[in-house]
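Following up on my earlier message about 2-deoxy-2-amino glucitol-6-phosphate. Here are the inputs again, as you asked, copied directly from the submission form:
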Amino acid sequence: MCGIIGYTGKDDAKEIMLDALELLEYRGYDSAGIALLNENGTQIVKRAGRVKDLRNLCKEKKPVGCCGIGHTRWATHGGVCDENAHPHRFGRITLIHNGIIENYRELTEKYALEGKLASETDSEVVAAVLEHFYEGDPYSAIRKTVLKLKGTFALAIMFDDQPGKIYAVRNVSPIVAAVTEDGAILSSDVAAIVPFTTDYFVVPEFHVICLSTDGIEMFDLSGDKAEIDWLKVDWDVSRSGKGGYPFYMEKEIMEQPQVIKETILPRIRDGKPDFGKEGIPDEILRDCKRICVIACGTAMHAGLVGKSLIQAMIGIHVDVVMASEFMYNDPVVDKDTLVIAISQSGETIDTLEALKFARKCGSPSISIVNVKGASIARASEYVIYTNAGPEIAVASTKAYTTQLAVLYLITARMAVARKLWSDEQLTAFIDELCRVPEVMEAVLAKKEEIHRLTGTILNAKDVFMIGRGLDYSILLEGSLKLKEISYIHSEAYASGELKHGTIALITEDTPVIAVVTQEKLKSKEFSNIREVQSRGARVLLLLKENEELEESGQWSSVFRLPVMEDPFMVMPASVALQLIAYYVSLDKGLDVDKPRNLAKVVTVE
Ligand code: AGP
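Thanks, got it. Here's what our run produced:
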C-alpha cells in the first residue's frame, strides 16, 4: 500500500514525480505529496485527494528542483487530511514511508516527541528519530534508526544538507531502483521506472541505498558495500498504458488471451507441462501427501479452483487457507505438505508471513507470483511467474486467470510425476488448456451482449450468485469483482445451501446470477435456480452454448458460454463475470480502476 517515488538527476523532478505518482496511484489514493530539495532548502507540496489535485496545487506553489521524493497514500495511522499526507518533515529530515511502524508510540515516548509532531502518522515519528541520530552521516543515522523500528517500512529520505541525494531503506515493503541517463530513480514498483529504463534492481531488505547524479551506491547495515543484483523488465513496456481503453480494467480483461498464451506456452515441452526452467523437481509434486494453498482475495479464489482440480484429478487433499487467518488456526503443515502461495503483487504481507511460517515448519513451497523479484517469490523455495504483465486496476482480472493457468499446469505435472494419466489423457488435457485463449476471445467478442445483460443488476441493492462445485468457486470471484468495483452488496452462495437460511433474503428485488457449467451438477443447479425464481428473483444465467434449455421462453437473461471440457469452463465463465462487474461499475459512473477504500498492494496485516 502507498506508492513511493524518488528521483535525482538533471530534469525537473516535479514533473517526473507527478507522472510517476499517477502510475503508482493504484497503490493508494487518499492523499499525495512531493518534496523537492535544492541548495535553497526543501519545499513540500501535499494534500488530501488524488494526484490530479496535487498537480493543480503544484501549479500554484511552483516547487523547483532536480531532486525529490513523492508519495501517494493509503491511510493507516491518522485520517485522510493534508497534515497526514506525506512527505513528512522533522528538523533537517524529509521522508516518505510505505508500511506500518508498530512501535511508534514507544518511540514517541522514548524520544519525547509528544506535542512536537505535526501529523498523527507513525511515519513522522521515524523522521523525528532520524533527526535525533543525525550528526552529518546519513548512513549512520539510518542504521541507528532502523535498529529501533518494529514493523514494515520502505523509506525514502532526504537530508537538508545533502542536496542531490536520496537515501532509502526497507523491511518487507518493496523498493526498486534504477540508474537513469543523468541520475537515479527509486519506486515502489517498476511501473514508474519503465519510462526511464528496463534495467532495475530490488533493494534487499535492511540495505541502505543512496541515489545521486553519479548513480546508486548500496551498503548493508554493517556499513559494508553491497553488490547490486540487476534485473531486466521482461514484459512489453508499451503494455503499461491504458492502450486506448477508458480504464485499465477493460484493457487487462481484453489482454487475457495473450497473457494466458505467454504463461502456458513456454511451459509446455513435447506436449508435457515442464517446470525445468523454474527448477522445480518432480519429487516435491510426487511425494507430497497434501497441499496447502495460502493466498488472499482473488488469488485465494484461484486457489479454490486449484483445489477442485487437484483433488478431482490427482486425488490428494488440498486445503485453501485465507492467508490472514492461517497463523491463528494452529496450522498443521509439515514436510509432507506442499505449500503453494499465490499472489499477483508478491507483496501481500498476510501471504508472505503465512509462507514464512510454513517454511519454518519444514514445508516445501512453490509460489505463483506476477511481479518479478517480489518478496513472496524470494521467500519461497520455487517460484512460477505468471506472465500477465503489469496489472494496474485494483480489481484483479488477468492475474487471476494466469494464476488459474499455472494451477492447470501444476495439476498436469503432478499427474506426470505420479504416473497417473495415459499419454492420451495428458495430450487431451494440454490441448484443452491451449484452447483457452481462443475460447476467451470468443467471450470477449460478445462483450456488448454482456453489457446489455447487466441492466437488471445496475440498480440492485443486493445480488446473489449461485452455483455448485467449480461453478461456486468461480462465483466467489465474480461476486468479489462486482462488490469491489460497483459497491453493490453481492454474495456468492453454494446454491444447495440457500434453503438452509439465506433464501429468506431472495425477493423480486434480488437479481441472481447463476452459473451452470458442470455436467454432473446441472440438474441440481437447475432445481436451485427454480427455487429462487419461485421467490420472484430474476435470474441471469450463464450456460454452455450447446446446453438445451427447458422452457427457453421463460428465461429473459441467458449468456451462452463457448464450450470447453468441464474443468476448463472456469476460464470462459470468469471472463463473462469480469465483464459483468466492469460494465455495472462503468454504467454507475464509478472510478472502475480505483474503487473506494482499496489499494492494489496490501502490505498491512
Ligand atoms: C481483487 O480484485 C483484489 N485486488 C484483491 O482481492 C487481491 O487479489 C488480494 O488483495 C491479493 O493480492 P495479491 O494477489 O497481490 O496477493
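One observation from looking it over: The radius of gyration is 25 Å. Hope that helps, and feel free to reply on this thread.
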